[in-house]
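explain this:

___
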Amino acid sequence: MRLLGAMRLLRFRGAGGAEPRLGLEEAAGGNVVDLSAAEPALPRSMRAFLESGQSGLAAAQRALESGQHRLPRETVRLLAPVGDPEKVICVGLNYRDHCLEQNVKIPKEPIIFNKFPSTIIGPFDDIVHPEESSEVDWEVELAAVIGKKGRHIEESSALDHVVGFTVANDVSARDWQMRNGRQWLLGKTFDTFCPLGPALVTKEAVADVHNLSIRCSVNGQLMQNSSTSQLIFRLPKLIAWVSRFVTLVPGDILLTGTPPGVGAFQKPPVFLKRGDEVQCEIEELGTICNKVV
């Protein structure tokens, strides 16, 4: 999907908790361009915006260049950049250093599971610690967002189907994930278990998505610190693989795996408790920070 330029797309609420709006971030942490005011005909859903293809992107570019409809960052509440995806697809054991941490063999093919869209929350919203779990864990992940529909996509053209990237936390209830029968879906898909944001950074704005530093801190203590260069299966392979089984559509989110340093493999294991603060950061994409309540 060819974009007109580098952008940081986002969703937000303005003062007074109005309906969600589409926006552009002028720079990381900078003012917000209110796309819904600049281009009222644009949809308010990021998924619908991406489905509009080049016309929507051209309208966003006009708004960015106009110099109008600017809002100070502190006056808006950022939402997950994509709030209503059809699919949230996840990849397990996809960092070499994470496999070494667990002393497991490097997979020969991608390990795929999913989360429900109801897990998604904003970049600074609260993670709700469920009563049903005592082993809630953190997992910082690079998330790719699909911008162009496809099935049986070739690796050589796979990145044409990606609109951009964002930061994700694949929050996991390990006691459910690893219990008898390995309830991966249930362990991964409690409400609020997928913070996303702060922006959907278009691929033109990222120098090399396979060479970004990726980190997670809990209460200010660095727990995960790696690079996307450690990915076993890179995005072209993942997109080609997944599209063998399902049709990818605009707004679909692909979480690409987590590096070492998760709580389950600390010695002794460490899990999130109410009151903790989890900060996930990826170079060039931004930072999300969520309190556990």
